Fold this protein.
Amino acid sequence: MKALRRFLDKQEKHFTEGKLKALYPLWEAIDTFVYSTGAVTRSGAHIRDALDLKRMMMMVVYALIPTVIMALYNTGYQANLAIAAGAESTRWQAQVMQLLGLGFSPQSLLSCFVHGALYFFPVYIVTLAVGGFWEVLFAVVRKHEVAEGFLVTSLLFPLILPPTIPLWQVALGISFGVVIGKEIFGGVGYNILNPALTARAFLFFAYPAQISGDKVWVAVDAVSRPTMLAQLADPLIELTYSWKQAFLGLIPGSMGETSTLACLIGALILILSKIGSWRIMLGVLIGMTATSSLFNLIGSATNPMFAVTPWQHLVVGGFAFGTVYMATDPVSAAQTDTGRWIYGILIGVLVVLVRVVNPAFPEGMMLAILFMNIFAPIIDWLVRNANIKRRLARNGVQ
């Protein structure tokens, strides 16, 4: 490690005064990713905290590890299940599996993990390369350091995509998310929308055939397998998955969204490290439970989504993943404690409204969070003004 430190120190002069000065943000990003920054405040009062933005983002990455593990396993598991049932795959990933001699057994952990990794990592690498390019480009043009927030965005985005998504669409999507969802607002700390969800929303409306429907969730050609949420929404389709399978994540869906158990482990890490807001998470759960219970009481003879219970809403679609990792985005979410409760509850209400009232669009988590991202600053403004009025009234000031 000392040799690496000496190497980086020797290169610094080329990026601070030499011909490569314009690329200083890229060098600084590499240097501070490997080592803590040596910059210190030399005058004036300041606050020192061991948890800076880079460490906070790395903690979110650690919290995402359980969902990544499930993404690797379940993507391969679903593909191996289809192939074991007689489906044929002509994709290059299946050819690599045959070359490696791993077979396609759903009971083989190694086969499932490797098969899933062959789908997940190409998407992740394209996201890193293309999104990283935009991050560095904007940092160089604006002459500031590369923001660490992309570490999280680059991992969130592949997890909310189907395994069969074309890689050129991944490049387009992350470009839209980084540029339109974040950089045009000024970069990290100024964006009002979650960049990863903005990228997914772009792909959903631009290329719906590759990100929705029944044929994109299992990484095998021509295999049609609707998600559990789609089965609940369609009375003509028999429900073939149990609640336990959905809770563990052994169902078709976006690569990292299927496992509620993995999301709960991530939630525990975020809450204990005080990075993720438990008020938002609990608020989303309360809003979802109250609204879905109300629909359960009302009932409907034509819309089966009225009968979906809170326990089912919890484990289907992107509810758990969105609640833990997306709704709690520290930049685009509400900032006041009271505002976080309101923000979370309204997301829970909206996601059930979208799922139930519009059966043609059974998944509503993405739209609910993006919609509330827009209203988060207004919620905080109302909360702050209410506090000011309350204090003035308490002290007898007109």
